[in-house]
Amino acid sequence: MVIPVWRRARLVGECLEAVAVQDRPPAAVVVVDDGSDDGTAEAVEAFLRARPGWPGRLLRLAHGGAARARNRGLAALEGVSHVAFLDSDDLWPPDLLGRLAGAFGPGVVAASADRRREDLRRGRVRRDDLRGLARDPFAWLFRHGAGVGSCTLLDAGAVRAAGGYPEDLRTGEDMHLFLAVAEQGRWAHAPGAPVRFRHGHASAYGEADHVHRLHADALEVRAQLYERLGARYAHRLAPRTLRRARAWKWWRVALDLEQRGQAGRALEALARVRALRPWWLRAWRAQRRLRDLARRGSG
């Protein structure tokens, strides 16, 4: 398994502890330090020294991004048949690896457990049932995104055949990989306790937040990626599903641009939404509101 870390000394210790107590221990663990400068790597080294014989190692890199870190971690794992990519702010229940491994069978290239999203910023907790991902991974990923890496076990051969994570993308690299993996076989579901996705916990500890939040245009980049991937996988998706997914991404872009005071660009994003969903009342109202604001501003 691979755990990429970026300035998360406290969180990564809790994450590693959850891996160390798995009922079915991993054959190998690679922790990839992507150029942290706050003592994260030293915290990982201390954790490993305290557990002699545990199959963990630290790989220290200059900062190169999430995709590169995960790919280097995978390259450091030799002879494994399955791989999991666990973000350092997420926590596994003790029986997770056993359940995920047990979900594999003929033709299965990926298995996911449910996730529990704990959002400190909004004070929300939500459990997501991922049975729908197993039924139709293409439709599910386009509707809900690919933020399921920490609760998923992948066939290592399928990951390598897909080319790993694309390192030229600043965001959305997980969507790109998981769709390519799903083309190679079936996706399975492992019922039971969910994986805890701790959104906002890193910043609450004064540590680095999710990488995609560092880019102001992350939502727009993801919407553009959906356009490209939508064209590539249109044969796997119902036309309505694809239109709604694309419209939702541009809707989020429009709201983000409006909040940042970029009314003109927000109107451009809303025009994309209206072209995909002409009768969506929320988008029509937002477009009218922004046009009124633009007219008042020009007057």
Tell me what you see in this structure.
The chain is of the alpha/beta class and 299 residues long. It folds into two domains: 2-213, Spore Coat Polysaccharide Biosynthesis Protein SpsA, Chain A; 216-298, Serine Threonine Protein Phosphatase 5, Tetratricopeptide repeat (Alpha Horseshoe), CATH 1.25.40. Helix content is 47%, strand content 18%. It contains 13 helices and nine strands. It has helices at residues 9-20, 40-49, 66-75, 96-102, 131-135, 137-144, 156-161, 173-182, 201-204, 218-232, 239-259, 263-276, 281-298; strands spanning 2-5, 29-34, 56-61, 82-83, 90-91, 108-119, 124-128, 152-155, 186-199. Strands 4, 5, 6, 7, 8 and 9 form a six-stranded mixed β-sheet that branches. Strands 1-2-3 form a three-stranded parallel β-sheet, sandwiched between helices. Strand 1 (2-5), helix 1 and strand 2 form a beta-alpha-beta unit. Helix 11 (239-259) packs antiparallel against helix 12. The N and C termini lie far apart (59 Å). Residues 202-209 have low confidence and may be disordered.
What are the SSEs and their pairings?
Layout: E1 2-5, H1 9-20, E2 29-34, H2 40-49, E3 56-61, H3 66-75, E4 82-83, E5 90-91, H4 96-102, E6 108-119, E7 124-128, H5 131-135, H6 137-144, E8 152-155, H7 156-161, H8 173-182, E9 186-199, H9 201-204, H10 218-232, H11 239-259, H12 263-276, H13 281-298
Parallel strand pairs: 1-2, 2-3, 6-9
Antiparallel strand pairs: 4-8, 5-9, 6-7, 6-8
Provide tags for this entry:
single chain; 299 residues; alpha/beta; Spore Coat Polysaccharide Biosynthesis Protein SpsA, Chain A; Serine Threonine Protein Phosphatase 5, Tetratricopeptide repeat; 2 domains; three-stranded parallel sheet; 9 strands; globular
